[in-house]
Amino acid sequence: MPILSFSDWKTRLSGEGMALPVRPSNSAITKAGIGGFLAIATVALIGYFGGNPLVLGSFGASCVLVFGYPDSPFSQPRNVFFGHVISSAIGLLCLTLLGPAWWAMALAVALAIMAMMALRIVHPPAGSNPVIVFLSMPGWGFLVFPTLCGALLICVVALVYNNLSRTSPYPKYW
């Protein structure tokens, strides 16, 4: 990597002068909020009555993408589901093999990013799952409850809600 001068940094950090993104319509904003509410409510309620917590902090960010920007590649069900599962599995594997060291957590995040990119299942909120694993230090059951079940429920709610509330189909691909 080249060494940048102060002037180079100043130029790079000043931005490119692009305009802000277009503000979504009030209808789109409302629909996204309702979708996020329904998804997290479903995951939390089923977890509550099933006796297993199914909510991860990263699921809130998943809802931003899935309901606010459902046409994005990051928002497609395969990315949501497999991104969460792969990232949690990598976090658990690194925690098990390397222990709860700071560098192991960093390595787990790096490996999760690389795996999601290589497998074409990038879902940015899932990148936080290895961090969640290292902070909570769960057992391997974490892969099923909350990761797999919670991600699956979000996908199911997204499939139903996005197809009922929008004119364009969801998902864009499997």
UniProtKB/TrEMBL annotation:
InterPro entries recorded: HPP, TM_HPP
The record, for Pfam families, names:
TM_HPP
Signal peptide start and end residues: none
Which keywords does UniProt give here?
A: Membrane, Transmembrane, Transmembrane helix
Q: Which residues cross the membrane?
A: 28-46, 81-98, 103-122, 142-164
Q: Please state every residue range assigned to the domain named HPP transmembrane region.
A: 23-171
Q: Which domain of life is it from?
A: Bacteria
Name the record gives this protein: HPP family protein
What is the scientific name of the source organism?
Answer: Undibacterium oligocarboniphilum
